[in-house]
Amino acid sequence: GGPDSAEDGRRFWIRNYGDGGEGGGGGGKRFKRPYPFAAVYVPRMSASERSDRRERMSRIYRDESRAMMARMHWGNAHEATAVLTALNYFWRKEPGVTIEEVGMCGAGLEMNATDGDGLIVGASPDAVIRHTNGTLEALEVKNHCPFVPNSWGRNGSWSRRKKGGGNRNHVFRIRELPIQPEVPPAYIPQLMMEMLTLGPQCRSAVMVRQTATTGAVILRLHRDDEWIEEMMHWLGRFHSDFVLEGVPPPRGVFF
């Protein structure tokens, strides 16, 4: 049921209110009953809109100097898709779970209740998972772009590929790498800060690492209060030694 679906015999018909793409006629997709997910993403882009976007993107990304911009745009554009992956996964395991949009968190922390020059912290998870038992988890999603510059060697170095490849005249190529089922160390401070700012009742964070070609992994990182205390110590040192003093930190500070 609902405005975007209708029963049709033994199947569900998911309507697309755009022009249906190249073929026109009101696009959509049929799914066998029962529909296995909590929600479905239905793009509402006409063929002319899609053509216009492709033309604009070809102008923006026509040279490799904007390679990282393209990869960042990919991650931003597909953030909602990864949130949908989390919703469908947890809803299948726990009907009634909700994924809630959230802004900047941390206003209620005691350390932020200051009128002076003290350290103020905050974090903005991509969403919050609210389980049926009242448990809260921070949700962070990362979308790994499948496109790399054509000059990016297969060993990760920036070296011109050998001639003879079928796509040697293209700016980008697709690089398929297996997704690793682990939280990259660089993201652990981010997840710990998100758990801190959501309050003491938040004891874990979920990370979705999603790709276009090799699926997704859903990972859970448990809160470590000793780790958070150490993190806050060094943030406080940086704030007092450099921010309040108005001096730039030296290279390799604290190492």
From TrEMBL:
| GO biological process, alphabetically ordered | DNA repair
InterPro entries membership: NF-kappa-B_Signaling_Reg, PDDEXK-like_dom_sf, Restrct_endonuc-II-like
Transmembrane intervals: none
Query: Could you name the domain of life of the organism this protein comes from?
Result: Eukaryota
Q: Which residues form the signal peptide?
A: none
Matching entries from PANTHER family are given as:
EXONUCLEASE, PHAGE-TYPE/RECB, C-TERMINAL DOMAIN-CONTAINING PROTEIN, EXONUCLEASE, PHAGE-TYPE_RECB, C-TERMINAL DOMAIN-CONTAINING PROTEIN-RELATED
Q: What is this protein called?
A: YqaJ viral recombinase domain-containing protein
Query: Which species does this protein come from?
Result: Trieres chinensis (Marine centric diatom)
